[in-house]
Design brief:
Layout: E1 4-8, H1 13-24, E2 28-32, H2 38-42, E3 49-52, H3 60-69, E4 76-81, H4 98-119, E5 123-132, H5 148-167, E6 174-179, H6 196-210, E7 215-220
Parallel strand pairs: 1-2, 1-4, 2-3, 4-5, 5-6, 6-7
Helix pairs in contact: 1-6, 3-4, 4-5
This protein binds NADP nicotinamide-adenine-dinucleotide phosphate.
């Protein structure tokens, strides 16, 4: 049987690129979107792709509906939460409207952990939960500031993820916090150093190499450890 991955947030950008790369590597892919994505649907020509729509990661009822919809399928070797936002990232956190800062925290930090909790029993033995974070979420590497609310949300994700891993220390899966590099997407911008294909190729290779490992690690798309 092919290895199986669930990718959350696959309409565009890195999620879309990961779907293409996992399919190219022979994986069965289940991908979620908020709204139908023609670019994602087009990837079905590459291999076994199941698309689940109406999945807003901030909506607990939608996550429960997804879990019910996937109840009858085999467990996933990898559950990868990719979805994230950088709303008004250029505005210092102290000046950001509270509701914007709160929404960034919900989507980037709280919702991925809630999703991991909802799906942890659907991870196959020796599988992985992978959460898309950012090097900008590294507290120790933060010298220059900038993107302060986004940084804080990813630092919060990393901390919540370590707590989650600690709470499930006997689990038969591992947890990877993944930094994809600086990538040319709507979020990363045109000046970013990597294209989506290069980042996705690297991330999938890292993930394939991490299968079977337990514990919690912060890695980049090249497999290097990122300091917390
Ligand atoms: N690009 C970079 O350089 C870079 C660097 C470090 C980390 N990252 C992280 O990588 C991830 C993907 O970023 P990207 O560069 O691919 O950004 P992107 O092109 O802006 O794509 C963001 C994706 O997240 C989805 N999303 C946002 N909010 C969501 C929600 N509430 N529920 C479900 N899906 C949601 C979007 O869906 P819609 O199409 O429905 O909006 C879209 O598929 C993010 O977590 C980001 O923080 C990116």
């Amino acid at each position: 049987m092919n290895r199986r991955v669930l990718i959350v947030g696959a309409s565009r950008g890195l999620g879309l690129g990961l779907v293409a790369r996992f399919l190219a590597r022979g994986w069965d892919v289940t991908a979620t979107v908020r709204r139908p994505s023609a670019a994602l649907a087009d990837l079905a020509r590459m291999g076994p792709l199941r698309i689940e729509t109406d999945l807003d990661i901030d909506d607990d009822a939608a996550v429960a509906t997804l879990a019910a919809s996937l109840a009858g399928v085999p467990d996933f070797d990898v559950v990868f939460v990719v979805a994230g936002v950088a709303t008004q990232a250029g505005t210092p956190a102290s000046l950001l409207p509270r509701e914007v800062a709160g929404a960034v925290f919900q989507t980037n930090a709280l919702s991925p952990i809630r999703f991991a909790e909802a799906f942890r029993r659907r991870v196959a033995p020796d599988g992985l939960i992978v959460l898309m974070t950012s090097k900008l979420g590294s507290v120790s590497l933060n010298q220059g500031g900038g993107w302060s609310s986004y940084r804080a949300s990813k630092a919060a994700l990393n901390t919540l993820a370590r707590s989650f891993a600690g709470q499930h220390s006997g689990a038969r899966w591992g947890l990877v916090l993944m930094h994809p590099g600086w990538v040319r997407t709507d979020l990363g911008g045109r000046r970013a150093t990597l294209d989506v294909e290069t980042s996705a190729r690297g991330m999938v290779a890292v993930i394939e190499g991490q299968l079977g490992l337990r514990g919690c690690r912060f890695l980049d798309h090249a497999g290097a450890t990122v300091p917390w």
